[in-house]
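User: hey, got a sec? need FMNH2-dependent monooxygenase folded
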Amino acid sequence: MGTPLHLAVALDGTGWHPASWREPLARPAETLSPRYWMDLVGQAEQGLLDFVTIEDGLTLQSDHPFRADNRTDRVRGRLDAVLIASRVAPRTHHIGLVPTVITTYTEPFHASKAIATLDYVSTGRAGVRVQVASRRDAAAHFGRRHLPEDRTAVSAELFAEADEYVEVLRRLWDSWEDDAEIRDVATGRFIDRNKLHYIDFEGVSFSVKGPSITPRPPQGQPIVAALGHVDPAYRLIAGSADVGFVTPHSAEEVTALVDTVAAPRPADAPAVRVFADLVVFLDGTLDAARARRGRLDELAGTQYRSDAEIFVGTPAQLADLLEAWHTAGASGFRLRPASIPHDLQQITDVLVPDLQRRGLFRQSYEASTLRGLLGLPRPANRYTTV
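Assistant: Yep! Here you go:
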């Protein structure tokens, strides 16, 4: 009987393989409909997953990470991730909702209000995945900044900005004390003005007065997550995130990456929950999974590649890998379904029961908030004086 692991799925269109929309069970005509997203998140909740992340961006999707590709045979176009999460929230009851927010061109004041609102409409199940945008076609939409030519310099600058961004988010969420709202009809006092606080943040990238216009969220501070590939991103995870997504390709890399993001963590801070990302092609047999990947690659006209490990096999074989990587130090796993709904159903209907039989996954939801599911305490308010 092992220590239970955490499990999430990353939702993006019809799946992470660029030809997934051409699969027989795919629903490409519905990706802009509320029903589609409610079905996907509902399926994930049936599998007792900790949370879903919802991808977003400021440019059309592209096979190339740093520029447009002008392909017309791929899924292009998406809805706003925060609004998807807000639409889905009232139709779910337990699963965490973690939309992506682009820190590079989105003001932290606006994001703090949106995620606080999501925490209210989901009754404490909100998070946010912060992501930077370094593509020049994204910058062209805004015309407000010039990015350095050196990609290393761009990375360092944008992740330093993201670190400030998260600090502003947390301060704004704390800018109302938990009991700031009195709502006393007899005296006519709705709020205690002494329990609303200026945050007076002055940084390199942001100057924010505060307070927020939204009362402190149910979780105190919704979960903050980030994906790490490079040192500046690892520093962001270590210093600012509750959950870090990493992309190891072996158990040894899992241990090394956990050490990388855990070492700089303050001693009195809760440990960051490190999730290993994997793209998954899951079928009843290894041959079937390989054949499906081959068919999708042929449709796409190129072999699928990813920053994350690409797993091709059966749910039982994946459970073996997750168990080994969990032993190596991963708190949990964020699985990227190669095609939806097929691989999502394999996760919830086959992988999860296997993990449960091994004592590695919950039998039911045991907490009412996302922080509770992840074993993270509700943070104290930095501005409370009494």
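Quick note: The longest helix spans residues 151-174. Let me know if you need anything else on FMNH2-dependent monooxygenase.
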